[in-house]
Amino acid sequence: MTGTARTAAALFAAAAATVLVAPSAHASVQSLAVEGSTHVVGGTYTLTAQVGGASGGLLVYFSDNGEFIGAPTVPWPPGSATIDWQPSTPGRHILTAEQGGSTQSIVVEVEEAASPGSGSGSGGSGTGSALLRGLLSGSSSGS
C-alpha cells in the first residue's frame, strides 16, 4: 500500500468511527394541546403539537385512541404541527402526537352533542296518527 492509500484509508476509518459514535439527533414532541375546553361529538377542534430537536422537520402523526387522524403533517411553521380533529363518539379520548419515536398524549372527555330542538315529538293533537290509521285500514275519513 502506498503512503497516499494508507492516509486515505486512515482518514476513511476515522470518519466512519466519528459517524458511528456521534450522538443521534432525536425528534422531540414537547407538548400537545387541543383547542377549547368543552368537546362534543361532531365538533371540530385543532390539535397542536410543539416539536423540537434536530429532526424537527420529520412528519408528525396524530391519533385518537390509537386510530390515526388524517394524514401525517409537516411541522409548519417549523416547530409546530396542527391538524383538525372531529370526535365521532362520546367518552374518554386519548389524543397522541408522535414524531420519530417521541410521543405526547392528552386525555379529553367528549360529550354527546345537544339534541336539536326541544319539541315533544308527539304529533300535536294526534290527527296525523288518526289519518295514518285510517289510510292503513282503508278508510279515507281518518277516523
From TrEMBL:
Coiled coil: none annotated. Residues 113-143 are annotated as: Disordered. Keywords: Signal. InterPro entries: Ig-like_fold (IPR013783). Residues 128-143 have a biased composition (Low complexity). Residues 1-27 form the signal peptide. One of its GO terms (biological process) is carbohydrate metabolic process. It comes from the Bacteria. Transmembrane segments: none annotated. Residues 118-127 have a biased composition (Gly residues). This is Bacterial Ig-like domain-containing protein. It comes from Nocardia farcinica.
